[in-house]
Structure formats: structure tokens, C-alpha cells
């Protein structure tokens, strides 16, 4: 059969279904059949699955014809692997693939293999693999840990990485890069494809996916031209004074939100943290009791069972509203959803668009998203988001490089199955994007680490993990092999406790530090209900339902995202528009005018060529505020840097606070601000050294090391029914960090922790750019009599971090606001 | 590298008895000449390495050097190990420890058993350790591995097991957790002696006395 004839098969089946292929789908079909690697750039819900499922099947039909083998005559083995980051999507993909398999009358099995697959089912698949397997990066690694994996994979023709933009920004992406590097050797004709939503760095996405195959030049990037129209509408109070100057919750606007929910068939309400989801759910029920029973909540700490129920109920149109977090960003489309509400700034364009896209599924339909500000300045972000969407601005996904923790795990995986020869694997690893810069010296260190434990061999040393036999590196100890298989993966769970009813029914998870503050009998609000703490037993929080009112709502750490770099650029543009009174595009900016006039009156409103610094004295002490608009992560680093540099002029101590717009240095003594500005405290010179000296980088690295220790197999979580021997192996990543920091400073895992801090946490590159930009701007220093609208939210943030009790804080905030209102 | 005993120690008086707190994480009961050392977790590194977890050897050396220096400096009559002397099943490190004890034949070495001390009696006898299976009462002081829930009136309890640490908070979001000696009205918790053993954050009450160990010094906070 010729290729046009093959494509006709696909067309016929599409016609039968009443579909018409999109241009990008046809393009992908042809490219695949011509033997290209590639990346399909298409949004969710656009038929991206069929852009690659079809040609994979067509190729098989072609092969059958060429070789003249009659269908079903002999085992074909594993032909295609489809990688998905979320299990929830696997089912949907399986259904689509199944449909096509039947439609084209191909004698293939389509099977899922995830963490939920039973051991017996896995065993069956090992002996009789399905032709089309849908799986996750972790499960693929587990297959590489099986004895005889080369044979298992030998018929493999293709690997498709779905939602590649999601994977590549995490260490799971690195896991995929490594697995692909191995599979390319085992299956020399392997084709690698990815499917990705639009991101700022598509080039890097392609490089990370294809690695060494990129140089051969046989690849295609296929873009769908499907664009979704998105409309952003801010929910505004009647009057700007009703919006607080600071805050994160936004419940002041609840009465404006309820009518939106009422008039829509089905609504998703996105909040930025799990804690806010709980609070919003509670307040909505209080304010609108008729929502009881038709409103639900969905976030990452609620049990899978409950979340599945919510998702199912959304599909079957039983729910009018769901309060959720990023847990519903991805996953299967919920067709009945008509309306999206976003509470508070999402801090990133891509995230906002993704959420907006959760509504309006009919082709050409408008996706409408309501933006509910939690404080007045956030309205500028609404305008910025609209601008960014209109101009096609999206964020980058930064791929991990040189993640030695993942590499160590991978090498042990290979040693656990059939063993490996270092020279062969080194070439493969060096061919990946992640490890393209790895040196021979580093490679030798890694080999030492897994064979001798990084120490010089001594007579008494009993270290054993990977052993070398005739040049082959392998694990022979069964206990070590088993422990390794149990700990494969790069997602490190929080140290959290399970919440269960006394009867044993599982509700979700909660972080230890939160529950530690409660006593038995205390009532807290979780998973949308009032729960009374009964006792804590064996890492389980036992609770019972109660009619008593909850006093507290749990929070989970790491909820708040900093403003993305792309967003901050647009934000500064909008601020400039306010300054020059160009309000034409955005009702939000017009709405904010009175507040901005106040800012101008008390201090100054900077144009894009100016950098504003405010300096004033209060009963608390001396305040310096600066507004780079670069996001809280960069501000944290910048504030510490500045504090360090000023403290070199005179001995002085600061308290530091920041938000996404700026930061504050507070001291009980006069700050030599003018002298500091003149001596270039904002310079980008010596940045690396000064950051290292100014920030508690040890503490930050220590936190980063948690994941690294777990992934590289230093910390073992244990499993049910283990022996004392295993129990005595439990330890914390902190201990390892300290011991390496004290005694083994060249340890690559330790160095990796420090690099990750600079790259991902402090965003050194971004800070450098910001400082260079500021140095070209005109610095305006004002000395306002009272805190300004820009300063206020930052100062409030400091109060919250200085651990005043929440009641006191509220009083304080109220007082400050009263003082301002004149 | 030889270990030098830190110069800055502290003294506390409890029920008219004087105790010296050493930054090496040991307590000397001055009047009785008894040195209290808790939670050494010897051999932990070996146990980990044997299971394929690459911890450097250095904490072992550090433990042994610190122990020797302490014994030479303090010259106790009795040494009471307050439990968790050895981390797990037997390994080579037990012999290293045995060698150390041999150098101090005049000292009586005793062990109040802890939950980690799971080796056979033979191993302890081999190094001439006196074993106490129950908490040991010396005068009105009760020495135990795990802290006693209710200390009998007129008694005072010294215990280990917890690996106490306290979190100190400073300006500008600075914070640090340090190992400590903890004294309440009827109980004291000793810091874990062993390197590579970790800390458990305790929440002191107002009347408690806390001494932290920082930079080889004992400081009252």
C-alpha cells in the first residue's frame, strides 16, 4: 500500500466518525510515516492524540502488507509506548487509541501500565506485552529495572511523550531523556515524538526531547493553528475603596461571585493555594447555602477517591461549581464546564490561559474567565494578563540540567536489571540534553559513588551496592535491588500525615507542622467539612465529623508561585500606561486611578524609565522600599543582597519583606540610603559572590537537598512490614546534607543542591538582568510622610511573617487602613 | 587530626549536685565522677554503607576522637552510656570502640540499654561493659534511656533518646536549630553524642533551662 492509500484509510475512518482532520494532524501523519522524529505543538482538546496514534497504526499496516504477514499470525511484541504525566489522562488516551485500533481493524492490544497496575497484570504484560502501551515515566524506568528488558523492548518502534512541556520542567523529564537514550541504542530505528502546548522556549523543548537525534536533522516541528479566543473580565467592586490594599483571599467580592456561579451551568473556581480553596468553599457555602450538595472541592491533598468522584460528577453534569487549585489545571476535559473564575493573580500567563481553556469546548467557542482581585494592585495584573494573551506571550519551561541525583538512580536501575558497561552508557548519557556537559571526571565520581560509596576502599569497608564483574556494573544483593525498585521515581512527597476517620476511611493528607499545633478536641476545616481531632497515631490523624464550627483551616507549604518573568515585563508596561494615563484598553487601570493618584501624591508613580525608591521613618523604624516588579523570589535575593552591601558601609541590622512588586528593608537605625545608592549598591558586579555571602545559601541548599537525597537513594522511606534492619536505615536528608557539607564538599549531589538554589530559587540570571535594567533607569528617591499604596502590601506581608498572632495582625491591618482613609 | 576538648563548658546545680556540661555532648556529675553520654549510635555509618547508602566514614572517626579526648580530659571513674550505644546489628565499628575502652582499664563502663541496643549479650560482655536493663538509680537520680513519664517525687531523671534540639530565631528571618542540654524541674535530656544522628526539635517551657552547643561552646539561652 502506498502512503497516499494509507492516508486514505485514516481519512475514511475520520469521515465515518463525522470528523475532518486538521491540517496539523495530516502533517504529523505524513512526517511520521516518512520516518521523522518530531514535536507536535497543539493545545489540549485539539485532537492531538490522533495526530500520532493514527500514523503509528498506519505504519504497522504498511509493514504487514510489505512483509505479507497475515494479521494475527504471530506475536508482535511492544511496538509503541505513549508516555503521559498524569494517570487521569491515561484512560482517555487508551479510549482514543482503542477506537482507532478498532476503526482501522488492527489486531493490537492497548493497555495501561501505571503505578495502579496490579503485580499480576504487570507480570502478564512482561510475558505477553501489549502492542500499544500507555504509561508514565516512572513505570518506564521500572521496566528498565526488569531482567531481560532489552528483549522486552526490541520491537519498539516509537515513544510518544505527551504533555512534554509539563514533563520537561521537572526531573521526570530528565528521567525520560535517560530512558530514551537507552531505548535508542536497543532499537536503532526508534522514532521519538513529543506533544507540547505552546511554551516560550519551544527550541529547548525539542532539544531536550530528541537529544543526540537532533544532530541527524531528521525531525519536524508541527504547529497547530488552532487558537482559542479568551476573554478576561475582572470582577470589580462598586467602588475602589472597597478593595483592600493588601490581602490574598479576596472574599470581600464573594457577593459578586455568587451571581456568576448561579447563572452558569457549571463553574470551576480556581484558587492559588489549597488553603484558599478550603476557605472559599467554606465561605461560599455560608453565603449561599443552596450550593450545598451541588458544589465540591478538588485539590492535591484530598484523597484520590474523592477527587475521582468530583471529576466524574463534573462529567455527568451533577455539579454546579467546583472550587479547585492547580490540581484541575491538567487532565481530561470537562465538557459541561461553562465558566471559569480565577481568584487572585495566577502569576503566570500560561497557567491563566490553561485555566481559561477549561471552558468553551465547542470549536470556535469563546473561553471566558473572570478574574477576582484579592487586593487593589492585583488589578494591574489582570490588565497585564489580558495584554500578554493578546500578544501571545507565554512562559518558558526551564529544563533541568546536570541532575546527578536522577542519573545515580538511573545507573542503579540499569545495574539492578541486566547490568551495564560504563563506556556504552557514558556515550548515551552524554548524548542527552541534560547531561551534554558531563565530564569524564564527573562520570568517574558517579561510578565511584555507586560502587565504593565515594570512599577509598579500605579493608574493613563493607559498602555494597553496585559491584563490578568483568567490566559489567551490577547489583547482586537482592535486598538492595528490591529497595531500589521500591524507590524509583523523582516525585518526592511531603512529610505529611494521613487524615482518616476513626473508622479508617481515608480523607486526605495534611502537613505535620499544622497538626502539631492542634490538640485533641480541636476542630479544623478540611476537605470541605468540620473535623474534630481525635488522636494522632502511627502517622495518621484520626478525626470525626462534627457540628462544631472549625477554628482553623490548614495550609500547605509552597503554595504561592512568584510572578513569572514574562508577566513582570507586561506588568511594568501596564504600570507605565497608568503613569502616562493611557487607560484605553483596560477598565482595571481606569478603576485604579484614584489609588494611583494617591501614590503619586504621597510619593511618585514611576514611568518605564524610572526606578522608584521610598525612604521614610515610622514608629517601627526606618524603611527603604524599592519596586523592581520582578516577583518575590528575585526580590528576596535582591533585598538580602542590598542589606549585605549596605551593612558593609555601616554596621546595621535589617528585617526584610517582599512581595511580587517590590521589597522592604527595615532597620531600627537610620539607613545610609543616599550614600548606598551613590556607591552602586544596585550594581550587578560581583553578584555571585555577594549573593553567596548575603543569603543563607546553606539553609536554602539544605532544603533543596531533600529531593536530591531521596531521588539518589540516600534516604529510604521504608515500607510496611519491614524488618528492624531496614528501620535502622531511616534518616533524614538533613543529616546527609550536614555530613557532606562537613566532610565531603566535592560531593556532586551537594554541589547540585547549591546550583539548584541559584538557578531555580534565586533565579540568578533574572536577578542579574533586573539589576542591569535598574542601572539604566533613573533612580527617583522620595520621602513620603505615610506608607504609600505600593508600600502598604509589602509592609503587611512583613507583619504576617513576624509571627504576630492572626488576630492581632487583623487588628493591625484594620488600624493601618483606618489611618490611611482620610 | 586530634580532637581538642572545648574550653567553654557550663555548670549547673541540681538538687545540690554539680554537673558540668561539655560541648562534646557529655555531662560530668562532678561529686560522683560519673560521665553521662547518651545516644552514640556507633556503627551507624557502617550500617548504612553496608546497605548501599554512601555516607562518608568521617563521622565514625569524629565520634571516636571526641570520646577519647573527653575521657583523657575529664578522667571519670565511671562512664554511663545512656542507651543507643550501638546503632544496629554488629559491625566492625564495635571492635574499634572496644579498643578505646581497653585504653582506660581503671574506668567502669556501663550501659543503660536503649531501644537500638539489639546486639547479643556476648558483644557487651566481650568489652567488659556492665549492662543495666532497667533505669539505674544513683542516689535520688534516675538514669534512663527513654525519659520517664512520671518522675517520682524527690527524684530527678536524666535521659537520652530524644536527641533534643532547639530552634532559635533572630532578626531578618534568621533561624537556626542547635543541639542542647535540657533541664526541667525534674528531668534532663542529654544531647545525642553521635555524629550523623540528627535532632528533634523540642518546645521548651518558660521555667526550663536550656544550654545550646554552638561552635564547640556550651551557652545558656
TrEMBL record, chain A:
Entry-linked NCBIfam families: DEXH_lig_assoc (TIGR04121)
Family: Belongs to the Lhr helicase family. Lhr-Core subfamily.
Native organism: Fulvivirga kasyanovii
Domain (Helicase C-terminal): residue spans on this chain: 253-405
An example Gene Ontology molecular-function term: ligase activity
PROSITE patterns: HELICASE_ATP_BIND_1 (PS51192), HELICASE_CTER (PS51194)
Phylogenetic lineage: Bacteria, Pseudomonadati, Bacteroidota, Cytophagia, Cytophagales
Domain of life: Bacteria
Protein name: Ligase-associated DNA damage response DEXH box helicase
UniProt keyword Chaperone, yes or no: no
Gene3D superfamilies for this protein: P-loop containing nucleotide triphosphate hydrolases (3.40.50.300)
Signal peptide positions on this chain: none
UniProt xrefs under CDD domains: DEXHc_LHR-like, SF2_C_LHR
Sorted UniProt keywords: ATP-binding, DNA damage, DNA repair, DNA-binding, Helicase, Hydrolase, Isomerase, Ligase, Nucleotide-binding
Domain Helicase ATP-binding, residue spans: 29-217
Amino acid at each position: 500500500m502506498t502512503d497516499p492509500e494509507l492516508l486514505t484509510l485514516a481519512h475514511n475512518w475520520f469521515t465515518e466518525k463525522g470528523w475532518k482532520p486538521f491540517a496539523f494532524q495530516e502533517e504529523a501523519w505524513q512526517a511520521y510515516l516518512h520516518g521523522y522524529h518530531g514535536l507536535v505543538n497543539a493545545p489540549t482538546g485539539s485532537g492531538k492524540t490522533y495526530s500520532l496514534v493514527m500514523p503509528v497504526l498506519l505504519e504497522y499496516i504498511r509493514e504487514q502488507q510489505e512483509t505479507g504477514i497475515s494479521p494475527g499470525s504471530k506475536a508482535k511484541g511492544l511496538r509503541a509506548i505513549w508516555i503521559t504525566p498524569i494517570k487521569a489522562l491515561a484512560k482517555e488516551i487508551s479510549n482514543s487509541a482503542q477506537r482507532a485500533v478498532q476503526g482501522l481493524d488492527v489486531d493490537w492490544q492497548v493497555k495501561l501500565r501505571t503505578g495502579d497496575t496490579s503485580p499480576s497484570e504487570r507480570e502478564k504484560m512482561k510475558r505477553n506485552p501489549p502492542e500499544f502501551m500507555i504509561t508514565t515515566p516512572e513505570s518506564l524506568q521500572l521496566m528498565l529495572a526488569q531482567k531481560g528488558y532489552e528483549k522486552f523492548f526490541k520491537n519498539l518502534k516509537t515513544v510518544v511523550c505527551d504533555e512534554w512541556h509539563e514533563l520537561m520542567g521537572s526531573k521526570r523529564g530528565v528521567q525520560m531523556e535517560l530512558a530514551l537514550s537507552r531505548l535508542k541504542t536497543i532499537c536503532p530505528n526508534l522514532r521519538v515524538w513529543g506533544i507540547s502546548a505552546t511554551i516560550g522556549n519551544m527550541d529547548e523543548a525539542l532539544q531536550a526531547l530528541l537529544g543526540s537525534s537532533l544532530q541527524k536533522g531528521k525531525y519536524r516541528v508541527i504547529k497547530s493553528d488552532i487558537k482559542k479566543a479568551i476573554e478576561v473580565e475582572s470582577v470589580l467592586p462598586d467602588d475602589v475603596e472597597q478593595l483592600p490594599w493588601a490581602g490574598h483571599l479576596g472574599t470581600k467580592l464573594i457577593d459578586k461571585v455568587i451571581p456568576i456561579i448561579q447563572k452558569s451551568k457549571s463553574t470551576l473556581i480556581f484558587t492559588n493555594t489549597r488553603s484558599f480553596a478550603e476557605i472559599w468553599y467554606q465561605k461560599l457555602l455560608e453565603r449561599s447555602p443552596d450550593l450545598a450538595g451541588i458544589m465540591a472541592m478538588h485539590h492535591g491533598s484530598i484523597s484520590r477517591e474523592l477527587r475521582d468522584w468530583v471529576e466524574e460528577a463534573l462529567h455527568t453534569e451533577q455539579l454546579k461549581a467546583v472550587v479547585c487549585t492547580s490540581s484541575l489545571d491538567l487532565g481530561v476535559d470537562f465538557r459541561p464546564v461553562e465558566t471559569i473564575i480565577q481568584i487572585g493573580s495566577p502569576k503566570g500567563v500560561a497557567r491563566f490561559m490553561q485555566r481559561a481553556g477549561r471552558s468553551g469546548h465547542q470549536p470556535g467557542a469563546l473561553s471566558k474567565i473572570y478574574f477576582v482581585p484579592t487586593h487593589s494592585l492585583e488589578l494591574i495584573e489582570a490588565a497585564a494578563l489580558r495584554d500578554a494573551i493578546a500578544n501571545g506571550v507565554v512562559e518558558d519551561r526551564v529544563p533541568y540540567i546536570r541532575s546527578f541525583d536522577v542519573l545515580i538512580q538511573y545507573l542503579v536501575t540499569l545495574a539492578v536489571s541486566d547490568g551495564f558497561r560504563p563506556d556504552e552508557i557514558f556515550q548515551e548519557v552524554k548524548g542527552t540534553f541534560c547531561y551534554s556537559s558531563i565530564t569524564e571526571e564527573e562520570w568517574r565520581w558517579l561510578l565511584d559513588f555507586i560502587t565504593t560509596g565515594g570512599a577509598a576502599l579500605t579493608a574493613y569497608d563493607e559498602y555494597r551496592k553496585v559491584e563490578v564483574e568483568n567490566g559489567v556494573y551490577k547489583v547482586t544483593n537482592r535486598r538492595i535491588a528490591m529497595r531500589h525498585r521500591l524507590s524509583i521515581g523523582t516525585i518526592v512527597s511531603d512529610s505529611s500525615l494521613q487524615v482518616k476517620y476513626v473508622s479508617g476511611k481515608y480523607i486526605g493528607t495534611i502537613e505535620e507542622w499544622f497538626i502539631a499545633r492542634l490538640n485533641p478536641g480541636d476542630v479544623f476545616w478540611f476537605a470541605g467539612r468540620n473535623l474534630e481531632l481525635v488522636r494522632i497515631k502511627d502517622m495518621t490523624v484520626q478525626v470525626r465529623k462534627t457540628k462544631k464550627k472549625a477554628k482553623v483551616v490548614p495550609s500547605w507549604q509552597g503554595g504561592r508561585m512568584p510572578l513569572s518573568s514574562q508577566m513582570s515585563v507586561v506588568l511594568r508596561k501596564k504600570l507605565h500606561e497608568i503613569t502616562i494615563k493611557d487607560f484605553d484598553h483596560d477598565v482595571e487601570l481606569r478603576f485604579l486611578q484614584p489609588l494611583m493618584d494617591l501614590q503619586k501624591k504621597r510619593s511618585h508613580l514611576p514611568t518605564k524609565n524610572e526606578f522608584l525608591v521610598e525612604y521614610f521613618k515610622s514608629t517601627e523604624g526606618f524603611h527603604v522600599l524599592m519596586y523592581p516588579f520582578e516577583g518575590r523570589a528575585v526580590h528576596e535575593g535582591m533585598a538580602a543582597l542590598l542589606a549585605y552591601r549596605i551593612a558593609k558601609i555601616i554596621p546595621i541590622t535589617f528585617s526584610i519583606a517582599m512581595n511580587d512588586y517590590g521589597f522592604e528593608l527595615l532597620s531600627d537605625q537610620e539607613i545610609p540610603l543616599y550614600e548606598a545608592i551613590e556607591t552602586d549598591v544596585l550594581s550587578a558586579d560581583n553578584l555571585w559572590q555577594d549573593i553567596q555571602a548575603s543569603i543563607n545559601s546553606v539553609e536554602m541548599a539544605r532544603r533543596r537537598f531533600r529531593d536530591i537525597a531521596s531521588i539518589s537513594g540516600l534516604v529510604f522511606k521504608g515500607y510496611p512490614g519491614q524488618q528492624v534492619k531496614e528501620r535502622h536505615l531511616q534518616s533524614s536528608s538533613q543529616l546527609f546534607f550536614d555530613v557532606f557539607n562537613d566532610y565531603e564538599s566535592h560531593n556532586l549531589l551537594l554541589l547540585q543542591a547549591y546550583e539548584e538554589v541559584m538557578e531555580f530559587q534565586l533565579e540568578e540570571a533574572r536577578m542579574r538582568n533586573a539589576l542591569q535594567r535598574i542601572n539604566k533607569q533613573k533612580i527617583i528617591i522620595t520621602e513620603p510622610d505615610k506608607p504609600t499604596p505600593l508600600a502598604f502590601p509589602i509592609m503587611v506581608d512583613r507583619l504576617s511573617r513576624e509571627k504576630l498572632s492572626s488576630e492581632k495582625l487583623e487588628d493591625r491591618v484594620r488600624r493601618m487602613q483606618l489611618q490611611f482613609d482620610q | 587530626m586530634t580532637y581538642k576538648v572545648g574550653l567553654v563548658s557550663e555548670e549547673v546545680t541540681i538538687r545540690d549536685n554539680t554537673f558540668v556540661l561539655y560541648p562534646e555532648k557529655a555531662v560530668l556529675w562532678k561529686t560522683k565522677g560519673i560521665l553521662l553520654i547518651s545516644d552514640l549510635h556507633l556503627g551507624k555509618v557502617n550500617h548504612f554503607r553496608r546497605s548501599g547508602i554512601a555516607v562518608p566514614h568521617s563521622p565514625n572517626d569524629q565520634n571516636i576522637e571526641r570520646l577519647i579526648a573527653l575521657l583523657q580530659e575529664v578522667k571519670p571513674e565511671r562512664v554511663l552510656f545512656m542507651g543507643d550505644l550501638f546503632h544496629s546489628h554488629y559491625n566492625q565499628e564495635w571492635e574499634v570502640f572496644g579498643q578505646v575502652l581497653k585504653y582506660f582499664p581503671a574506668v567502669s563502663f556501663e550501659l543503660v540499654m536503649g531501644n537500638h541496643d539489639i546486639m547479643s549479650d556476648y558483644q557487651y560482655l566481650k568489652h567488659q561493659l556492665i549492662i543495666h536493663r532497667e533505669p539505674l538509680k544513683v542516689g535520688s537520680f534516675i538514669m534512663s534511656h527513654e525519659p520517664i513519664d512520671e518522675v517520682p517525687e524527690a527524684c530527678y531523671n536524666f535521659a537520652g533518646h530524644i536527641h533534643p534540639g532547639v530552634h532559635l530565631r533572630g532578626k531578618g528571618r534568621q533561624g537556626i536549630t542547635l543541639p542542647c542540654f535540657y533541664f526541667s524541674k525534674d528531668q534532663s535530656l542529654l544531647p545525642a553524642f553521635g555524629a550523623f544522628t540528627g535532632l528533634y526539635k523540642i518546645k521548651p517551657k518558660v521555667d526550663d533551662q536550656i544550654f545550646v552547643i554552638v561552635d564547640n561552646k556550651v551557652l545558656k539561652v
